[in-house]
Amino acid sequence: MSDMTSDTDSDNSELKLFDDSTVQAEPFQIEVIRSKKRRRTVSAQMHGDVLRVSIPSWMSKSEEATNVAEMVRRFKRKIATQEVDLTDRARILAKRYSLRIPDSIEWAENLTSVWGLCTPSTKTIRMSTRLIGFPSWVLDYVIVHELAHLHVSGHGPDFWEITRRYDKTERAIGYLIAKSGDTDDNTDKTDTDTAHETELS
Ligand SMILES: [Zn+2]
User: Fold this and answer.
1) Domains in the chain, ordered, with CATH?
2) Distance set, CA 175 to CA 128, 138, 157, 162, 178 (Å)
């Protein structure tokens, strides 16, 4: 069972099937549960192929639609992230470009201002779920960029020498700049002692 909850509430729920056929064209069915006890939070859980969305009973139909759409978007993204094996991808790229293999590489929902984040001290990498849907060669660039930080902490010439072992680096940087709506030609600006970011800008 998969769970997404923004807060915990006890439930005194009445079950209602969501009967909008266009919504049911989603990869899973949707049930909306209106709860009298639920004051403000919306939560969703996957039960088999049914997404069960719990909302406060006072919500209007349009608020219901907005919240259901948001939960559907989140779960679709969750499904999409499960289709990309980051660990496997990082291993392949590390081997190809003679780079270290991270201890872990995972998707992160809360990386909103950066594309990727490497913490060299723990050899961990986090990848923004905003990359979902981008071409695989762009995703590969961000992985290579973060892998390179396992070797070099800053963004100096030695760092770029490693990163440019990946031949689509320049192209991918251009793609990410276009996506972030920034004219800065450097994808990265910030470095601290503990973490390295591929900035969203
Ligand atoms: Zn960086």
Assistant:
1) 2-83 (no CATH), 86-199 (3.30.2010.10)
2) 15, 7, 21, 20, 5
- DSSP of 81-100: HHHS-HHHHHHHHHHHTT-P
pLDDT digits (tens, 9 = 90+) for 70-97: 998 888 888 887 888 999 999 999 999 9
What residues does the ion ligand 1 have nearby, CB within 5 Å? 188, 196
Distance 74 CA to ligand 1 centre (A): 27
Q: If you measure from the C-alpha of residue 85 to the centroid of ligand 1, how many angstroms do you get, rounded to a whole number?
A: 22
Query: What is the CA(31)–ligand 1 centre distance, in A?
Result: 42
Predicted confidence (pLDDT) per residue in 49-64, tens digit: 899 999 999 999 999 9
Sheet hosting strand 124-128, strand order edge to edge: 104-108, 124-128, 114-119, 196-199
